[in-house]
Amino acid sequence: MKHIKTVWYWWWGWNPTHMETMLERMEAAGWKLFQVDFFGIRFRFTRGKEETVRYSVDYQPEIEEDYLSIFEEDGWQMKWSGGGGWYLWRKPYTTQKPEIFTENSSLIERNNRLLKLLTPLFYMLLFIFVILLIAGYEKFQWLIWVYVILIGLYVYMLTQLRKYNQKLKSEIRE
Fold first, then answer.
1. pLDDT tens digits, residue range 82-107?
2. Residue 85 and residue 114 in contact, taking contact as beta carbons nearer than 8 Å
3. Model pTM?
């Protein structure tokens, strides 16, 4: 029987719930997370005992001095930090599932931090795309198509982040 398992899992920053659930199921099946790649899409597990664990993702491009200690004092273990401000936290529990984000407003703040990162990058992509178009379509045809795909991906990400924030805001109002 294998003692190490590798799982590739693509997840979206505005809604990491699916990835968190996958990690929690792996722990429940006795697979302990021991390594995450820099981009947070390759997860490596080792065989261990089954445990009920909560995983939670946070995005903090600039952490304050007490950020790590606040989580650690509350029993959270940092399993990964990478990809420009992403943090993956783990906390075992027995009865009530712990949450890092206890209010929708804190999730909205996390998503707004993502928007502050992605929006300028989107405008930079658009600027480079326009320069490529002006320079001549024939010379850079393949690169223009790459930028079309990237711009489409960014539009999708920004739209999803805003839609998710609207959903969270409407839940607050109810």
1. 867 889 999 999 999 998 877 888 88
2. no
3. 0.73
